[in-house]
User: What shape does this take?
Amino acid sequence: MTIRVLIVDDQAMVRAGFAALLAAQSDIDVVGQAEDGKQGVELGRSTHPDVVLMDVRMPEMDGLEAARRLLDPPPGVIHRPKVLMLTTFDVDDYVYEALRAGASGFLLKDAPPDDLISAVRIVAAGEALLAPSVTRRLIADFVKQRPVQRKDPALKLNGLTPREAEVLELIARGMSNQEIAGHLVLAEQTVKTHIGRVLSKLDLRDRAQLVIFAYEAGVVVPARGDE
Assistant: This one.
C-alpha cells in the first residue's frame, strides 16, 4: 500500500529535499507541499494524506496549531492523518504540546535520510517515534515539570487486565514491541493485540499518547536523570 505524504515547511529547499527523497521510494507518494500551517491544513483536508511532516515554527500558522486542527477536525471532517513534527531543536515545548495534541512523534531535520524514510513508514503503520532514549527523557521531564490536571487518570487503569497494565508500563519505559515480547516471553503479535486493547480501553490514539498517559497516571515515575 502506498503511503500518502504531505510536507509542511516554510523553507522551500527543505520541502524540495524531503519531497525528492520520499518520492524516490516505491511505497511513498508525496501528495502535496505547503509553506505554512494554514496552507498545510487546507491541503490536508483536500489531499487526505496518511502522514503529514509538519515543521514546528512557521509564519501565518505554526505547526502546533496546524497539527491540532488536523488531529481534532471540526464536525463533518472524518479524515485524521498521522502527524510527524519536524524541528531543528532537540528540546522544544512546541513538540511536547504537539504530542499532547495527538502527534505521533518528532524528528530532527538534520536526521539522516534513511531515518526520515523509516520515520514515515513507522508512523504510517500506527507506531510512534518514541524509541530514542532522549525522547523518553524529554517527555518524562515535560510531564514532571508541567503536569496537566486530569480527572483521576489512574481510575482508567482499573479497566486494564494485569497483563495490559504491564504492557503499558513497558511502553512508557520506551521498549519496542519486540523488546516487550522478549521481556514477557510473548509473541510480538500478541503484544500488538494487547496494545490495541489498551488504546481502546483508554481511548487514546497511539503510542505517544500512551507514554504521556502512563506518566500522568503515575504508572511510571520519572527519575532524576532518567534517560
Remarks:
- The mean pLDDT is 83.
- The longest strand covers residues 28-34.
- The chain is about 50% helix and 10% strand.
